[in-house]
Each structure stands twice: as structure tokens, then as C-alpha cells.
Design brief:
Blueprint: H1 2-10, H2 15-35, H3 40-44, H4 48-57, H5 80-83, H6 88-110, H7 121-129, H8 132-153, H9 156-163, H10 171-203, H11 220-225, H12 239-256, H13 278-301, H14 303-312, H15 321-331, H16 334-341
Helix pairs in contact: 2-8, 4-6, 4-9, 6-9, 6-10, 9-12, 10-12, 12-13, 13-14, 14-16
């Protein structure tokens, strides 16, 4: 095909990743039809960005001729400077992404989402809102195709790092690397707090084996509210989503702000100037739209209490939460809202009682 010939000629580094992305898109879509379960991409979300990232970071490791169809390879048409030496910057990025993978895989495993029978609850809600035909169109175009493309894009910053001179790590690399690991740790804490709360909510018992940072003394009133509002969740309604977006922003910035990053000739007002930021921009757009949908479900389930939570706590940025509190104080409503969000102003199932 002309497409593969052009790709091999103009961008040989992307031949295997594109081939693998096409294969994963077809596989996840077919499985979603055969199993009537559209969470197939969700199950591989933790692995695919890592696979793409490791492919680029380990280019000198792969054979020039693949032994099997989907085995990674490094075509001879890739410049020798890229396929004969490793990039320290790309290896740093790979170590960050592998650590990210372990965190997400652990959280996915303990929630049972690797089970082939499990499906994200949001897809069932969406099924009920649109016709079966439209849902299958959505399944093909967004769940299977668009999400796999997004996961492919998340590997591009490492490809950019590989294409740069393979010089020793710079100050910016150490700074962003440290921030990346700290963000993963923060997201791990937020995951553990959510898991601890959900465990208490369904069992009514405090676990003595919680991870540090998640040893919160949940109460009956917390369980009745129905959703977590303590720990990191008292400052951000989605601290895990905030960390996830921040992590991929950092991965995108590492090669862009390195001393070896080439100057781009795009005008500041040109859309082309945003191209290097495409991976994190697309991911953040996905998380924003997904969060709005998720919150609509939570608000329908806990109309008064969750509305109060939205008024009191920022969606993502913790720095805005004190601002929302100050505005409520000016309106004379902070006490009643705080009672619903943090206190005991609830009836059963977190429905809340307006004051």
C-alpha cells in the first residue's frame, strides 16, 4: 500500500507503532462485539502507552527484521545515530511510564477491572441514553478507534526525545523526572483513599491494612453520603484525574523544554504551534469530557450532596477550593454546604437535605 511505503520512507520509526495500533484497534473492536462488552480498551489502557514508549526508548535493542508480524523492529532506514545508541532522556521517560503502568495496573487489578466480564459502569449508562445503533457507532469511532489513537499519541513525546541528540540528562530532565515520580505517588495516594472509602462503604468496616496516606477513619456519615470527600478528595473532586493529566503534560514537556529541543518555526498564533502538545491536549480534552459525564451520573445519584460538593470543591485544581469556600462565605452559605460535604447534613444514601 502507498501509505505503508510512504511511512517506511518518510517516518520509519513509526512503522511498527502504527501497525501495532491498527492491530489493537481491530482486536479490541472485534472483542467488544463478540463479548458485548466495550471495556476492552480499558483493560489494555495501562499497557499500550508503555509498549509504545518502550519501543521508542529501546530502538537499538530491536532487530532490523522482525521474526514475526507484530514483533517490534528497527528498520535500517532509521538514522544510525538513533538505532545504535540509547537516548538517556528517552530512558528516563520510559522509567516514568513503566512506574505509571505499575500503579495503574495495581489499581485496575484490585478493582477487578481486568476481568473479562467487567465493564465500566459509564458505558451501561450511555447504552440507556442512546439507541443501540448509535452506541455501536460510538463504540467503533470513539471507544475502539479514537481511544487507541490517543494511546498511540502518548508515546510520541518519547519518539521526540529519541530524535534529539543523545546527550546526558539536563537540569530540566531531573526536575521534570522528579515531578513525574511525585505525581505518580500522589495519584497512588488518591487511588488508595478512594479504594479505602469504597471498601468501607460496602463492608462497613475499617481495614487495618491500608496504605500510608489512606488510613482515614471513615464514619457512618461518610458511607451515607455515598462518595469520598476526605483526604485529597477534600481539595479536588478528582485528584486522580488531575495527577493523570499532569503526568502526561510532564511527559510531553520533557523533550520540548530540553536544551536539545529544536526551535520550531511556527507562528505563535498558528494551530501548528500546538502540534507538539497534541498528546497531552487530546488526553486532557478526553478527561474533561469524561469527568463531566461521570459527574452527571454522580449528581443524578446524589442530587443535593453532590451539587454541594461541586460548589465547595474544585473539579481539578486544589488552589481553587479555598476560593469557592470564600465565595460561599460571602454568600452566607458556607456552613450549610460544608455540612453536606464534610459533615452530617445528610439523610440516607447521601441524598442530602437542602438548608
Amino acid at each position: 500500500m502507498d501509505f505503508w511505503r510512504v511511512l517506511m520512507h518518510e517516518a520509519p520509526m513509526f512503522v511498527w507503532p502504527v501497525k501495532f495500533c491498527v492491530a489493537m484497534t481491530a482486536t479490541t473492536y472485534v472483542l467488544s462485539i463478540l463479548t458485548n462488552n466495550v471495556s476492552q480498551v480499558d483493560r489494555v489502557w495501562t499497557f499500550l502507552p508503555t509498549i509504545y514508549t518502550i519501543y521508542y526508548a529501546l530502538l537499538p535493542f530491536w532487530p532490523s527484521i522482525p521474526p514475526t508480524y507484530l514483533f517490534p523492529s528497527t528498520p535500517d532506514t532509521i538514522p544510525a545515530s538513533l538505532r545504535e545508541t540509547f537516548s538517556p532522556r528517552a530512558l528516563l521517560m520510559a522509567s516514568l511510564v513503566v512506574t505509571w503502568m505499575f500503579r495503574l495496573s495495581y489499581n485496575t487489578w484490585r478493582r477487578g477491572l481486568f476481568s473479562l466480564k467487567d465493564e465500566d459502569y459509564r458505558w451501561e449508562v450511555l447504552r440507556q441514553k442512546i439507541s443501540p445503533f448509535l452506541f455501536q457507532v460510538f463504540n467503533l469511532l470513539f471507544i475502539a478507534i479514537a481511544q487507541n489513537i490517543i494511546l498511540f499519541l502518548l508515546g510520541l513525546p518519547t519518539a521526540r526525545a529519541v530524535a534529539q541528540p543523545h546527550t546526558p540528562l539536563s537540569t530540566s530532565d531531573y526536575i521534570f523526572g522528579t515531578l513525574g515520580f511525585l505525581i505518580i505517588l500522589t495519584e497512588f495516594i488518591s487511588d488508595n483513599q478512594q479504594y479505602s472509602f469504597q471498601t468501607f462503604k460496602h463492608s462497613g468496616k475499617l481495614s487495618p491494612n491500608e496504605w500510608p496516606g489512606a488510613r482515614i477513619q471513615w464514619t457512618k456519615h461518610d458511607a451515607e453520603r455515598g462518595f469520598v470527600t476526605r483526604g485529597l478528595w477534600a481539595w479536588s473532586r478528582h485528584p486522580n484525574f488531575l495527577c493523570e493529566q499532569s503526568f502526561w503534560i510532564i511527559i510531553t514537556l520533557i523533550p520540548l523544554l530540553s536544551p536539545d529541543s529544536p526551535k520550531l518555526d511556527f507562528a505563535p498564533t498558528s494551530f501548528a504551534s500546538l502540534t507538539p502538545f497534541l498528546p497531552c491536549l487530546v488526553l486532557c480534552s478526553l478527561f474533561f469530557s469524561s469527568t463531566i459525564f461521570t459527574e452527571s451520573i454522580s449528581k443524578a445519584k446524589y442530587p443535593v450532596a453532590y451539587s454541594a460538593y461541586q460548589e465547595r470543591v474544585a473539579m481539578f485544581l486544589p488552589l481553587l477550593t479555598p476560593v469557592w469556600g470564600a465565595l460561599l462565605e460571602i454568600q452566607g452559605r458556607k456552613g450549610s454546604v460544608d455540612s453536606l460535604v464534610y459533615g452530617t447534613g445528610l439523610n440516607s444514601k447521601g441524598k442530602g437535605k437542602a438548608e
